[in-house]
Specification:
Length: 187
């Protein structure tokens, strides 16, 4: 595997999970730059390229390598929109990519997204959601699609913890906190 397409709804804390994975050996973080960074509170914020509407890169699985300055290492390729491109990703990268889904309930994700900055978040760009009602509607739509896709692939949901990461990636991560309302799976 050289690509991990990574998706979750805004406020699902998926960015912190991605950063935990990227801190392990063999992961490519050459998509990071000052303009691709947003920090908030004592939490991780956002780092690296995000793909999607209004972003530097559209959510096009065929162009993802453009965000990285070196080709080697596993790339965590982040977009809220990958859930709409699962078939395309699987067709383009049948042997070299996996897709990781992060699920957190709608209202909890919506509340955390607002606490993390909401529409004041400078990176990535959330303007296309237009307002809080639009954001909540999209969180609900994407979460439903995440659950349907996991069901379609008979995926097993787990908590994001050290044991799960060791089983999936063969390395022990530095997980600072496990959340009882966040589940992960790989299809």
């Amino acid at each position: 595997m050289d690509k991990l397409f990574f998706t979750g709804v805004p406020g699902s804390r998926w960015s912190g999970i991605a950063q935990t994975l990227e801190a392990m050996d063999g992961w490519n973080t050459t998509d990071r730059s000052a303009k691709r960074t947003y920090e908030h509170h004592q939490y991780s914020g956002h780092v690296g390229a995000y793909f999607g509407k209004g972003m530097e890169f559209e959510a096009d699985p065929a162009i993802v390598d453009q965000a990285y300055s070196v080709p080697s290492g596993v790339k965590v390729i982040k977009s809220h929109e990958w859930i709409d491109h699962v078939n395309e990703i699987k067709a383009l990268y049948p042997y070299t990519a996996r897709i990781m889904l992060v699920y957190r309930p709608d209202q909890t994700s919506f509340a955390w997204w607002h606490e993390a900055g909401g529409f004041q978040i400078k990176y990535p760009n959330y303007d296309h959601y237009e307002n809080s009602a639009g954001m909540l509607a999209e969180i609900t739509r994407c979460n439903q699609k995440i659950l349907q896709t996991a069901c379609h692939y008979n995926a097993t949901w787990s908590y994001f913890n050290n044991q799960w990461v060791i089983e999936q990636f063969g390395q022990e991560p530095r997980i600072k906190q496990t959340f009882s309302d966040i589940l992960v799976t790989i299809i």
